[in-house]
């Protein structure tokens, strides 16, 4: 009995050890947190906020970044229990865990109607001396797009630096790339924690502003690349490559790292640095990657951009790549210009020729040896019912089944070009990349490693049907180079994030679309093209909006940095002075429903201008604008107007888009100022 008791006691202690030791270990594991601190609460005894933070909140070695421009506070590497204790400090307004985000992965100026020597482009002097801060994966400075030949001196208001590092010296900055920084402390603090995969892999990355991924170089040259003559990608899209603002200056902020994303604490530090450096515009193609928007007070991009906009910096961000599902748009704060991706009138056609003579149209940027004129056996591994095989995942294909054949691969899960590599490794001759229902007919041309053609969902189903019905199915692929004049264009890309905003449907998002499909631009030399191995009035509007959506003063201070008081009468979120008009009605409303929204316009043209309104009401709705005429004078530069949208429930048919579209236009005989109108039926979340 004594022996049994001893054994039981030992077993009991062993179980306790097995349970408690991992718990203790996990609580001692450090990860990074961001803390929003009441800036004015610093005791006068401390000379700086850093001294205060390291005396009352945490050890100096645990501080990653301190923020004092777009955000007030700090980020630090702490255990969960330390973070919880820090949050209890009365001067701490909020905290959130550091989160990893993902990147939103020549003819564009002409397609947009920009012409040399006339119009908007020349009148703005091609963006001369505008400083664009690009938050991305860095830059490959040797590209022709970043030459400073015949460029004037660096703008006097520039206060930034050229941060040196691995393979990046001070000489890599010039009068075009006027500044460069990199931010990695958030990554390094999260190395190996909870599967976040932080840390910098020195074998594939440069701990410097140099770009090892390609995305940053691409976005920088698209925005502000200089004229690059005789540009092409292996013969495709030959011509003169240039950015939309070729005379603008570039300031590079490397916040994203190859194969490991971008951490919030580093992004927020970049916002702080960019505004202090003196940028005029911030371009950021980063998001959550899951199609879900965080509340503004928990979203560092929303917080950082608010601080930037309040200091007169324009912030433009991508809408995300989680389309075509509804409510997939990200970066939806109303002070951000949210940009969706659209096509241009250029295409890179390729055709699939089936054994029965039928031809299926698709796209490709394959530039190797063609296979035109010879037919090869055609196979669809997905007919087995194995998902990994249908997607051509790594090690999913049986070489005996695909060797010497053209292989049909379904789009999704792994990168498009990676599927071709899987086919090639298994002995396949070529690939047909078929869209699924979610991607529809939206196609992207890729620089494939073997002859390959991307086709739409319907075409993919057609080819699969032929493969199943034919006794000996065969196919070939031909490549058509570059063609222009494609219509219709632009078309919203299938992958581009779609509205309405999941946070506030009454604010129309995305704001605009811009060329974002098959764009030729500069690239890093490290990897191949596949990528494989300060007007406060604008702010006093946004505060009113935050009050309207139910945020309290303390929550709003997390975003705005300053204490605020909401009006006694709660404002309407729809009355944010936004250029677009979104009227949202409850799906359960019956009979007649209406909403009246107010907008304020400012005349920036001729002093004595008179504008008359023209309304194109969404189908099944009535839209009334009062007054119908706006009369401006030298003294009256601002005027209000009211838009009443009325719907009769039985007359409303939303259709597949889940929304009705219209517009109102103010015209003075020379100018047209157009605002889109969107009517939706949606219940607040």
TrEMBL record:
<dbReference type="InterPro" id="IPR010259">
    <property type="entry name" value="S8pro/Inhibitor_I9"/>
</dbReference>
<protein>
    <recommendedName>
        <fullName>Subtilisin-like protease</fullName>
    </recommendedName>
</protein>
<dbReference type="Pfam" id="PF00082">
    <property type="entry name" value="Peptidase_S8"/>
</dbReference>
<comment type="similarity">
    <text>Belongs to the peptidase S8 family.</text>
</comment>
<dbReference type="InterPro" id="IPR045051">
    <property type="entry name" value="SBT"/>
</dbReference>
<dbReference type="InterPro" id="IPR037045">
    <property type="entry name" value="S8pro/Inhibitor_I9_sf"/>
</dbReference>
<keyword id="KW-0732">Signal</keyword>
<dbReference type="InterPro" id="IPR036852">
    <property type="entry name" value="Peptidase_S8/S53_dom_sf"/>
</dbReference>
<dbReference type="Pfam" id="PF17766">
    <property type="entry name" value="fn3_6"/>
</dbReference>
<dbReference type="Pfam" id="PF05922">
    <property type="entry name" value="Inhibitor_I9"/>
</dbReference>
<keyword id="KW-0720">Serine protease</keyword>
<dbReference type="Pfam" id="PF02225">
    <property type="entry name" value="PA"/>
</dbReference>
<dbReference type="InterPro" id="IPR034197">
    <property type="entry name" value="Peptidases_S8_3"/>
</dbReference>
<dbReference type="InterPro" id="IPR041469">
    <property type="entry name" value="Subtilisin-like_FN3"/>
</dbReference>
<feature type="domain" description="PA">
    <location>
        <begin position="376"/>
        <end position="461"/>
    </location>
</feature>
<keyword id="KW-0325">Glycoprotein</keyword>
<dbReference type="InterPro" id="IPR015500">
    <property type="entry name" value="Peptidase_S8_subtilisin-rel"/>
</dbReference>
<dbReference type="InterPro" id="IPR003137">
    <property type="entry name" value="PA_domain"/>
</dbReference>
<dbReference type="GO" id="GO:0006508">
    <property type="term" value="P:proteolysis"/>
</dbReference>
<keyword id="KW-0378">Hydrolase</keyword>
<dbReference type="GO" id="GO:0004252">
    <property type="term" value="F:serine-type endopeptidase activity"/>
</dbReference>
<feature type="domain" description="Peptidase S8/S53">
    <location>
        <begin position="127"/>
        <end position="523"/>
    </location>
</feature>
<feature type="signal peptide">
    <location>
        <begin position="1"/>
        <end position="26"/>
    </location>
</feature>
<dbReference type="InterPro" id="IPR046450">
    <property type="entry name" value="PA_dom_sf"/>
</dbReference>
<dbReference type="InterPro" id="IPR000209">
    <property type="entry name" value="Peptidase_S8/S53_dom"/>
</dbReference>
<keyword id="KW-0645">Protease</keyword>
<feature type="domain" description="Subtilisin-like protease fibronectin type-III">
    <location>
        <begin position="575"/>
        <end position="679"/>
    </location>
</feature>
<feature type="domain" description="Inhibitor I9">
    <location>
        <begin position="33"/>
        <end position="104"/>
    </location>
</feature>
């Amino acid at each position: 009995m004594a022996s049994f008791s001893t054994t039981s006691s030992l077993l009991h202690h062993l179980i306790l050890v097995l349970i408690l030791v991992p718990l203790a270990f996990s609580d001692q594991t450090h990860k990074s947190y961001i803390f929003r601190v009441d800036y004015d609460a610093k005791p006068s005894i401390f000379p700086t906020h850093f001294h205060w933070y390291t005396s009352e909140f945490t050890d100096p070695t645990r501080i990653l970044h301190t923020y004092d421009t777009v955000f007030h506070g700090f980020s630090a590497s702490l255990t969960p229990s330390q973070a919880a204790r820090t949050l209890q400090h009365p001067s701490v307004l909020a905290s959130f865990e550091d989160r990893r985000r993902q990147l939103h992965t020549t003819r564009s100026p002409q397609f947009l109607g920009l012409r040399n020597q006339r119009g908007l482009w020349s009148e703005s002097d091609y963006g001369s001396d505008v400083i664009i801060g690009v938050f991305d994966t860095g830059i490959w400075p040797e590209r022709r797009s970043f030459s400073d030949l015949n460029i004037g001196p660096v703008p006097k208001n520039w206060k930034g630096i050229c941060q040196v590092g691995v393979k990046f010296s001070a000489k890599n900055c010039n009068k075009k790339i006027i500044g460069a920084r990199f931010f990695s402390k958030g990554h390094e603090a999260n190395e190996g924690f909870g599967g976040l995969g932080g840390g910098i892999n020195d074998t594939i990355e440069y701990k410097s502003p140099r770009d090892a991924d390609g995305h940053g170089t691409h976005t920088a040259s698209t925005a502000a690349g200089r004229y690059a003559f005789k540009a092409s990608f292996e013969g495709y899209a030959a011509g003169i490559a240039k950015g939309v603002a070729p005379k603008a200056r570039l300031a590079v902020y490397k916040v994203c790292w190859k194969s490991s994303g971008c951490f919030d604490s580093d992004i927020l530090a970049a916002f702080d640095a960019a505004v202090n450096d003196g940028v005029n515009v911030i371009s950021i193609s980063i998001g959550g990657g899951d199609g879900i928007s965080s509340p503004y007070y928990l979203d560092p991009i929303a917080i950082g951009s608010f601080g930037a906009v309040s200091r007169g910096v324009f912030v433009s961000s991508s809408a995300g790549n989680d389309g075509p599902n509804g409510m997939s748009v990200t970066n939806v704060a109303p002070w951000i210009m949210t940009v969706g991706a659209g096509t241009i009138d250029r295409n890179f056609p390729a055709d699939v020729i089936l054994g029965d003579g039928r031809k299926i149209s698709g796209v490709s940027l394959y530039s190797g040896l063609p296979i035109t004129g010879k037919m090869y056996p055609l196979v669809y591994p997905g007919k087995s019912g194995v998902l990994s095989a249908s997607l051509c995942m790594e090690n999913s294909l049986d070489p005996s089944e695909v060797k010497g054949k053209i292989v049909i691969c379904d789009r999704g899960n792994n990168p498009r070009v990676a599927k071709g590599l899987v086919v090639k490794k298994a002995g396949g001759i070529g690939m047909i990349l078929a869209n699924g229902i979610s991607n529809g007919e939206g196609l992207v041309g890729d620089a494939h490693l073997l002859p390959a053609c991307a086709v739409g969902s319907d075409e993919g189903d057609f080819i699969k049907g032929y493969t199943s019905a034919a006794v000996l199915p065969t196919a070939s692929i031909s490549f058509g180079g570059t063609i222009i004049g494609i219509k219709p264009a632009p078309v919203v890309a299938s992958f581009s994030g779609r509205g309405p905003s999941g946070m506030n449907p009454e604010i129309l998002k995305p704001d605009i679309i811009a060329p974002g499909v098959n764009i030729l631009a500069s690239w890093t030399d490290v990897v191949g093209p596949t990528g494989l191995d300060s007007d406060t009035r604008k702010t006093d509007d946004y505060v009113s909006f935050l009050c309207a959506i139910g945020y309290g003063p303390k929550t709003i201070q997390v975003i705005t940095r300053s204490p605020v008081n909401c009006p006694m009468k709660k404002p309407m979120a729809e009355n944010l002075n936004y250029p677009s008009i979104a009227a949202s009605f409850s799906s359960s409303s019956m009979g007649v429903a209406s909403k009246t929204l107010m907008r304020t316009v400012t005349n920036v043209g001729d002093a004595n201008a008179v504008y008359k309104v023209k309304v194109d009401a969404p189908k099944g709705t009535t839209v009334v604008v009062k007054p119908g005429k706006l009369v401006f004078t030298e003294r009256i530069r601002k005027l209000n107007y009211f838009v009443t949208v009325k719907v009769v429930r039985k007359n409303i048919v939303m259709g597949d888009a889940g929304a009705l579209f219209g517009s109102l236009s103010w015209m003075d005989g020379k100018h047209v100022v157009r605002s889109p109108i969107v009517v939706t039926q949606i219940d607040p979340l």
